[in-house]
Amino acid sequence: ISQFPDSVSSGINAEYGSDKTIGGGEDAINTFFSETGAGKHVPRAVFLALEPTVVDEVRTGTYWALFHPEQLITGKEDAAINYARGHYTVGKEIVDLCLDRVRKL
Question: pLDDT tens, 64-80?
Fold first, then answer.
């Protein structure tokens, strides 16, 4: 799973690049990327994990500079493969933060 963000990012970059005209017009790149005020394109993605090691792979991986730190959300512990624990206790603490980040995209 920790290789997933790198492979998705590299695939999107290969397909769309940073040229807005690649992929079928000006809006094609805006499907996957948002343009910042400085003209940088950042992925429209929020990475969320209750356990931080998977998202830490993105923070330290090849494409770390693509993501704003606010797009990488982690909890302090995992739910130990227990839906109720993830939904009602551990995950409940960060659900509002995650929804806020998604709204900002």
Answer: 888 888 889 888 887 77
